[in-house]
Design a protein that fits this description.
The chain is mostly helical and 105 residues long. The protein has a single domain (4-94), classed as Helix Hairpins (Orthogonal Bundle), CATH 1.10.287.3510. Helices cover 78% and strands 0% of the residues. It has helices spanning 4-24, 28-52, 57-92. Helix 1 (4-24) runs antiparallel to helix 2 (28-52) and helix 2 packs antiparallel against helix 3. The longest helix is centred in the C-terminal third of the chain and has 36 residues, at 57-92.
Length: 105
């Protein structure tokens, strides 16, 4: 069986990659992919802790239900994010974050 520390290390690396992608990239599509990577890292951590602390079926299912809600929220985020990206592309012909100044005014 793989130790809890290995799962947490992988989740931390995924989260760090996503955070650096959000901070360093300017393309809106890449930003949303990095945000999804960060959500996936949190899901991996929740599942790892749920399996590690599973003394009963109820304890294991509570972590899995939380992951199900996170996946549903991530799906909603993708739908709204892609709609925003398509709208920005139609209006300004760019998805570069540094060139989008419509919300400043």
């Amino acid at each position: 069986m793989i130790a809890l520390e290995s799962y947490i290390l992988v989740a931390g690396l995924l989260f760090a990659i996503g955070a650096f992608g959000v901070l360093l990239r300017r393309n809106t599509l890449i930003l949303f992919m990095c945000l999804e990577l960060m959500l996936s890292a949190s899901i991996l951590g929740l599942i790892a802790f749920s399996r590690y602390n599973a003394t009963a079926e109820v304890a294991m299912m509570s972590g899995n239900l939380l992951v199900l809600f996170i996946i549903a929220i991530a799906a909603c985020e993708v739908a709204v994010g892609l709609a925003i990206i398509v709208t920005l592309w139609r209006r300004q012909q760019t998805v570069d974050v540094s060139e989008l100044t419509a919300l400043k005014n």
